[in-house]
Amino acid sequence: MNRSPHDLLASLSEMLPSHPQLGTFLAAIWNEVESANNLADFCRGTAQSLQAATAATAVQFQQQQPNGEWRKIASNGNPRSVTASQFEKWLHAEIVPGETASLLLTLPDEPNRMLILDGATRLSPGYLQAIREVVILALARFLQSVTQSQRATHLKAILSMVQRWQQTDDLPSLLNQMAESSTEFFQAERASIFLWDKPKHQLVGRPALGVEDGKLVVPDDKGVVGAVVQTGQSRRVDDMLGHEVNRDIDKQLEFHTHSLLCVPLLDRKAKVFGAFELINKRSGNFTTQDQQGLEEIAVHAAAVLESSQQIAELLESRDRIAAAQAAEIQLIGESPPMLKLRKNIERIAATKLPVLVLGENGTGKEVVSRMIHYHGNRRGQPLVSVNCAALPDTLLESELFGHEKGAFTGAHETKPGKFELASGGTLFLDEIGDMSLPGQAKLLRVLENQVLTRLGGQIDIEVDVRVIAATNQDLPQLVKENRFRQDLFYRLDVVSLYLPPLRDRGNDILILAERFLVEFARKARRETPTLSSDAQSRLLGHAWPGNIRELRNTMERTAFLCDRDIVTAEMLPIDTNRSPQVQQVPTQLDLTEATNRFQADFISYHLERSGGNMSQAAKNMGLHRSNLHRKMKQLGLLEERE
Ligand SMILES: Nc1ncnc2c1ncn2[C@@H]1O[C@H](COP(=O)(O)OP(=O)(O)OP(=O)(O)O)[C@@H](O)[C@H]1O
């Protein structure tokens, strides 16, 4: 244990009468602090004065290297060589007195150093401890003054570097210049600047020196650079922690990363928009000073990059990509409910209102949420999905709101939640009805205040997220049963969109079936087969409990399994047992009444399946439309409909 400088001084004054040589030593070592040119000089001078102060036969300073080995930095006299096992033993004991006294000189964030005094047999442990503390104090002061003067030189170099960058407005050459000058400045082998393409969950590294065409694309949740953009914290990795490095990239580039330093690039609002990475320090590992230096450079780099004209162009092209994505989302269907739904989506996409999407499984709730996102002005920002049913309560909260390091067992590092990741964009909460009550309470708070606190965190983090929630459950019923918060229900239910089950979409079944058939026939590299009229009737008559997902799977199997040009009803892989039946007519009715009841049920059934489309229903029943109309009038069905 080191004492405070005050206590140390008091103890030294007590020792002075019995160790008069101490006074000369203190004056000499202080002189080294003031005048030594570098660390070796300092150690050499100190070794000399120490030999006098301790009457040792030889004195040496050793320094531990990043690979764990020890290297002599200075000595006086004729020091004996020391074995690795001795170093190992001495490293675990602060002072080893005896024939040879070894004193460990540890400084925070610095490599280990050791002072070895040969033939120092007569010295008391108290005296040795005082010597050790004096050397540590002097060493720390010396290194601090070196760092300060180095820092001044660093700052000057950074300034001239940044001035050069400001004269370049072409983005690729700017990025190139940044990477090249920092590689040189930090004595690294490579450098990359990664720009975060959030909507695509990718990091685009430019330039990656040594990479063909200078461009590298990596997922935004992998490796050190992924961790840096996700957490906004710098990382330094050396060989001992090498498992953190994304070795896939190394393999791809036939390169071995042994040390790495990566810092975030922050915009004016302190949001991460990229990362600056240096790879392989030419000698040893990156130091704390390197990290501070790169963080400083990153501040300037971020400012220059942010004002670069071409970043705007990059964002525009991102918008073009988003527009292309929007065009790709298909909400197929021409039935009245689907036409209305499409109109509603267009109307609400431009707003930030929360949306609740309701409907059975497989009815297209996720497709709808993607349409809302990609047709709105948030489309250049991320769309993040969370399935609330797939996560246990305990994980759900940290997944949504993030956690701080140490918030719970296993929280080895700070992690932002999906809310933060969706910042500026949209969060799709699927199966919201399955969210736990504590989760609901937190969600409500975020929706109301637009701020969140990470699990185990103290500070409020502002979030700007549009929430789209979906469920196949009866939320009002869950509210009645106290399984869903009423206030949250009202919050989410500002706009609700209902997706009818496929069986109620009438002819949409055939439109969808044909589209899927075309899609999968192309995949199966075959001509698209046609659906016979009995196959069409079978499709229209099936209940589709799995909705569009089931229809899609059925058509996929048909495209791959049916080897004819025409698909007949028997060839369809449909489980007919699950189709609804026309209601059984009670046997106590007379024949006319029973026939009428059957006809009414039968017609209603087909009308329902055709989404109210009379022509289609008539066709499915093998009738002319006018005959169906007459029949319906006769059965009193028209009044009901009008
Ligand atoms: N109107 C539609 N047009 C084209 N494809 C659709 C349509 N609706 C759904 N699909 C397709 O059907 C499948 C299921 O859709 P989706 O995942 O959106 O349903 P969901 O209601 O979210 O299901 P779940 O409740 O099970 O999560 C997807 O492959 C989707 O692309």
Describe this structure in words.
The protein has 5 domains: about 5-150, GAF domain (Beta-Lactamase); about 170-315, GAF domain (Beta-Lactamase), CATH 3.30.450; about 330-500, P-loop containing nucleotide triphosphate hydrolases (Rossmann fold, 3-Layer(aba) Sandwich); about 500-580, Helicase, Ruva Protein, domain 3, CATH 1.10.8; about 590-640, Orthogonal Bundle (Arc Repressor Mutant, subunit A). The N and C termini lie far apart (about 95 Å). It is of the alpha/beta class. Strand 10 and strand 11 form a beta hairpin. The strands form 5 sheets. It has a 6-stranded antiparallel beta sheet, sandwiched between helices. The protein has a 5-stranded antiparallel beta sheet with strand order 2-1-5-4-3. The chain has 24 helices and 20 strands. Helices cover about 50% and strands about 15% of the residues. Helix 2 runs parallel beside helix 5 (about 125-165) and helix 5 (about 125-165) packs parallel to helix 9. It binds adenosine-5'-triphosphate. The site of adenosine-5'-triphosphate has 17 residues, from helix 12 and helix 20. Adenosine-5'-triphosphate binds near residues 363 and 364.
